Prior knowledge:
TIM Barrel, alpha/beta
Amino acid sequence: xxxxxxxxLLTIKYPIIQGGLAYLAYAELxxxxxxxxxxxxxxxxxxxxxxxxxxxxxKVKQLTDKPFGVNFAIGQNGRPFxxxxxxxxxxxxxxxxxxxxxPAGFFSMLAGTNVKKLVLVAAKRQAQKAEELGADxxxxxxxxxxxxxxKNDIGTMVLIPQVIxxxxxxVIASGGIGDGRxxxxxxxxxxxxxxxxxxxxxxxxxxHAHPLYKxxxxxxxxxxxxxxxxxxxxxxxxxxxxxxxxxxxxxxxxAGYEELxxxxxxxxxxxxxxxxxxxxxxxxxxxxxxxxxxxxxxxxLFREMILEAENIRKKWAL
Length: 318
Ligand SMILES: Cc1cc2nc3c(=O)[nH]c(=O)nc-3n(C[C@H](O)[C@H](O)[C@H](O)COP(=O)(O)O)c2cc1C
């Protein structure tokens, strides 16, 4: 029933992908998503070095025998990614996703392997480029999403059909999806899979997220996010707080990267998401926080979403 080109490509039961989540997507979450029938991923560049990545990959393998992926945000902090990719290849990882820059160099490292290549993009042109370079599928994130976004503020509802009409590889919809309704909406648009980020943070197996971060996602509304880093040409959606207010004030006053870097650093991110200090840092989140009301286990989340989606399907069949 959930067979699409995406579930076939990745050999998963449900075409539901857990997006890369900087500093949050480690073995526990990735394995829980894969064990529930989706595709879990570890976020490689959050790890200190390639050896740590190897350890994390081995940990996932102990927790699940299902397929999982490794996500690479390239270009982030300008950190070289090549040794991390080598580590993933040495560990036999068969699915990798990439975002944040031109994937050509990344793909050339995978030439001659059977690794399935997913690219997270935020615009039609980027999706076409990813296909040209050899992506097996594209994940497309609309403006509602958490974390880094496209520059043109195009919402998922408009972006997905546009991309579907312009590439022939399967399209995975991302941005603003948090339940079975969102999933069915994405399939109605022609997507063959979905990716979620924010929704997975408010789950039991996202063990690294501080309870206050999860509470903010559960209690917050769709009005509680804000786009930061726009002045740097890298718009990204975070929970609105005193930290992001200060940052936006500086951006509006014309501050450059040097002045802003303390406000957007990994350290500032970790202050909020690990230490639960909302006034001393920031936390990425999408507008979907407006519909997150609980902290289920990943398996409970999957069961609820599939049930809801299948009920919609039945209703449509009448
Ligand atoms: C906390 C957080 C961290 C993220 N880090 C990454 C990352 O390292 N790599 C990546 O490809 N995407 C990253 N993303 C984007 C997500 O994978 C996904 O595309 C996005 O969250 C989808 O929108 P949603 O939050 O509405 O589900 C991040 C998103 C969030 C919320």
